[in-house]
Amino acid sequence: MLMKCTRIATLRRINHIAATVALMVIGVHAQAQSSVQLYGIVDTWIGLQKTPGKASSWQEGGGGLSTSFWGFGGQEDLGGGYRTIFAIEGFFRPQNGAYGSFNGDPFFSRNAYVGLTMPAGTFTLGRQSSLLYLQACQFNPFYASFTFSPTILQMYAGLGTYPSYRTDQGIVGGTAWSNAIQYATPDLHGLTGHAMYAFGNSGSGNGSKQYSVQASYRNGPFAAGAVYQYANFNSTAGDLNSLLAGFHSQSATQLAASYEFSFAKLYGEYTYTNDDVINRGFHVNMFEGGLSIPIGTSRILASYAYSRDSGGLNQNRQTATLGYDYPLSKRTDLYAVYLYDHFAGLSSGETAGVGIRTRF
Predict the structure, then answer these.
(1) Which CATH topology does 46-70+129-180+201-359 take?
(2) Which of 16, 89, 113, 194 has its CA at a distance of 20 to 30 angstroms from the CA of residue 282?
(3) How far is C-alpha 216 from the geometric centre of its chain's CA atoms?
(4) Confidence (pLDDT) at 281
(5) Which of 45, 85, 38 is nearest to 66 (CA)?
């Protein structure tokens, strides 16, 4: 009788261990099937800033080398090479805790999409970063900095962003498009392509209909990209308020390339913007060149951009930046940057600051 009870107890322990192992295997399998991750960047700088035509002032800003953001995203493996993906991301300003990169930005201003990845490519639906913006960031050494990147400053902070001066240079439509559908090809030996369309969500008028196509190629130290973007606006210019009376549409084309040598990485971009205003039109040419020089684990960064509009206000702009980026760890770095910004007919602008950036 005692031996029988012992055998029963042993069998129960074996069954319990087997059940525990099975649950662990199921848990590991479930984890492999799907995942959700929290991530983001917090970047704050302090320094002296003077926009063209204005007096200088001390600033603490939230986004020196990177615009601060937080987000969570994930995927679920459906099998057979199919996966669902999603990302929900919002910019914020750590200097005051406000959401968005500026007043009026939506809460999830960076991305808010869901999609399906398959062997033939990826489809995503929702608010998504524009293809022109992503390429402009990739091919300049200061990436997406609205404070210190000459490329981003001239392209996205040039058309009415600063009330201190009147300008008709810059890209309309912002850095992210709402109501957008995007298709991305699989990687074909270094060649990839994207196509995106943003619906106006309106039964009348042409407000905010936008589309874009982009292709890029990467082979070892060499990379290149080409993108075309079109944005259509109401003939009453209601989408742009009174920024430019009669503004109808805008198209932008950009060619870009980079090459990484052992001693430095070189960047170059050319952007042609054509603006259609009722009864007239004008265009803007912009050139950018930059480099990144490794010094041990740190980097020296430099970039210069020149733009000129013809047929509009006939303005030219020159922006140059020099910076030093020092990593404290894989996640955190310190930086010091100086920017010079000259706009025709106005006193020059300058920004000098030091900052800290951490990723999570």
Answers:
(1) Porin (2.40.160)
(2) 194
(3) 16
(4) 83
(5) 45
